[in-house]
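Checklist before submission:
- one chain only
- standard amino acids only
- sequence pasted in full

Submission:
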Amino acid sequence: MSGVPFWHIDAFADGPFTGNPAAVIRLDCWRDEDTLRTIAREINLPATAFAVPAGGEADFTIRWFSPRGEIGLCGHGTLAAGHALIGDRSAICFATRTAGRAQVAREGDMLSLSLPVIRAEARYLPDAVEMIGGAPVETLWNERGYGILRYADEAEVHGLIPDFAALARMGDVQFSATAPGAATDIVSRVFSSRAGEDAVTGSAHSVLTPYWAEKLGRDDFTAFQASARGGRLDCRLDGDRAVLSGRCVTVVEGRFLA
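Returned file contents:
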């Protein structure tokens, strides 16, 4: 059989059909960008991670595509790629175009993903508040397009009904609505102009980790992203890195023949 290795994996998942689904395709060499985009559209998952063996300090170079185009940073796609490709290693390192190196390592029965932190600063965000709703007690922004809206309690986060049409007109932005949690230290929902509401978002927790580490007064905490699928993460601030831990479930394994 020809083709290339292919996996469909649910990342940050408690079981099948939870967490965030991603495809992983291992290539021997890079194909042109139009081909990668076409493959991602055909697979039609929130992210397809393409990985090519690399030399030097990284094991693979990785790129991510949604059905709409290339993604600048995709945490759940990277965790899924680590799950598919780590083999018997204790850790695997990916070189990225936009975020330096990303490492996936074994951590008990989970995998941990190390990403650069994205620090947001206090800023009034009236347009975002109007589109997402509720009455956040604090809003923050990072110029790369990442926002935080912190609410008083978990119930308010669950009750939000964003205006996704208005959000789609804002350009490439992502907003995390977050609050202290009951079963976990924090909860969040993540809304982006590209995907609407995301299932479980590694990049968002690269923003949330330094924020909540400061608010909670400790470097590690538990998190739940309260999407329809739902996803649990353990978050840890390690200097200028956010270490996000979770489980992955392989749903499909085979070969992509195109």
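Reviewer check: The longest helix spans residues 202-216.
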